[in-house]
Design brief:
mainly alpha, three-stranded antiparallel beta sheet, 12 helices, disordered C terminus
Amino acid sequence: MATVTRRGILAGVAAAVAGVLAVGLVTAVVLTTLQVLPAGESPVVDDTTIGVQLTGAAAADTGRDAFMAWLARGILLLALIWGVIGMFAARTRLVRRPGAAAARASWLGSTRPWRARESTLGLLQLDKWLLILVPGALLLGTRAVQTSFLSWVHLVIVMSGWCVTVLVLRALVGARSPWPVLAAAGGAVVLRCVWTLIPVAIGGPAAAWSALWTEPVLRWIYALIAAVLLVWVFVAAAWALVMQVGPRAATGFVLAAIGAGLALPALVIGIIGGQTVAEAWATSLAPLGGLAAAPYVWLEFPVAAAWWAATAGGVLCVVGAALAFPARGTRAGTLPE
C-alpha cells in the first residue's frame, strides 16, 4: 500500500509538472499573440495583424442580460447540487438513488483522482452515461449562457476542442476501462464551469464581459483561477490513469490529448482564415460589450495566431506520443489493468 501511495504521489507531481508546462506553452502562445490594448487605444491593423473591438461595438440588451443571469444561476444551482450529492452520497441513503454513484465518482475523481478507479467500480450503465453527459451538458450550457446564446462560432471552437481532447484520450486508453479518467476529468470540468458561472450569475453575461475587459485586476484574478482549474482538469486525468498505464504513459496520453484538442480546431481556423473567424466571433459577441463606457477596449493579434496555436498543439502531440509509446527497450513501469 505504501508503495502504491508513493507511486501515486510521484505520478501526481509528474502530471502536475507536465500539466503546468503544457498549459504554460499554450499560455505563452496566447500571450504572445493576443494583446488587450489600453482603453482608448486603437489597433494598428495591417496585413499581419487583426483587431477586434471588445467593448462599445453595439448596444447591450439589458433584458436579455437579466434573463441570462437567472439562467446562469439555475445552471450553477444544478452544478452545486450535483457536487453536494457526490460529497455526501456515500454517507446517506442517496447512494441508492439513480445517478448518485456517478456524482460520487465525479466528486472523488476531481478532488482525489488517485481514488477515481475505485470510485467507478460497479457503476451501472446509467451512471456511466451520466459521467459523460453531465460534464458535457454543463460545459455546453455554461459557454452558451456566458455568451448569451449569441455566438455559434465560440461554441463550435470550444466544444470541438474539448470533444477532440476526450476522443483522443479515450482512443489512447484503448481496451482499459475509460471510466476513471472520465470521472476525474469530467468532475474537474464541473468545478471549472462553476467558477465560470459565478460572475455571469452575479451580473449577467454583458456585465461580466465588460468587467473582464475593462478591469485588469479582475481580469488577471479571474484568468489565474480559471487557468489553475484548467490545469487541474488534465492533472486529475493523468493521475487517474496512473494505476492503469503508469506515470510516464499517463502523462503522455494527456499531453497528446491536449495537443490534439488545441491543434485541430486551430488548424481549421487557420484554413478558414483567422480574419474571417475573428470578425464572425467579434460581431456575434458585440452586444456583450455594450455596457462598458468609453474609452473602448480592442483586442489585437497576428494573422498567423491560429497557425502558431496549431504548431504548439502539434509539439504537445509529439511529446505526448514519445512519452506514451517509448522505444521497446525502455517500455517499463506500465502497470497491469
